[in-house]
Structure formats: structure tokens, C-alpha cells
Design a protein that fits this description.
3 helices; two-stranded antiparallel ribbon; mainly alpha; Arc Repressor Mutant, subunit A
Length: 75
């Protein structure tokens, strides 16, 4: 899956997934949504992001949750 609004840069927030190179992490946005903040409130609090950034943050989080680690079984 291609995420054009999510960046990973070791020099920004320790390489955590961020929105477009800003110092706003995907986990911050997902956490705000999870705690009941409205999109409007998030956009007011972080005027440098756009509604599409919120959408992609949620899509990215869902995509990461689909990844699974399988235990290595040796016979």
C-alpha cells in the first residue's frame, strides 16, 4: 500500500511515522481520534495538517495492524 502523506525520517521524531515530514506523529492523530476528539478539533489544534492527513493516518494504522509476526517453527 502506498502512503504519500506518511513519512519516516530518523531525524524527525526518532523515525516514527509522521505526517508529511512534520513533527506530528501518526500515533498522535490516531490517539486523538481514539480518545474522542473530532476531526474539526484536531484540525484546529494542528493547523498545518489537512483532513486527508487524518484519513491517511487512520489507514496507515489499520494497515500496520494487519501485519502479523509468525513464529518460526523448526522441525
Amino acid at each position: 500500500m502506498l502512503f504519500t502523506r506518511i513519512s519516516h525520517d530518523p531525524a524527525v521524531m526518532g523515525g516514527k511515522p509522521c505526517i508529511r515530514g512534520l513533527r506530528i506523529t501518526v500515533s498522535t492523530i490516531v490517539g486523538l481520534i481514539a480518545s474522542g476528539s473530532s476531526r474539526e478539533r484536531i484540525l484546529q489544534s494542528y493547523p498545518q495538517i489537512e483532513e486527508a492527513d487524518i484519513d491517511e493516518s487512520l489507514a496507515y494504522a489499520a494497515w500496520r495492524m494487519e501485519e502479523r509476526e509468525e513464529a518460526l517453527v523448526l522441525n
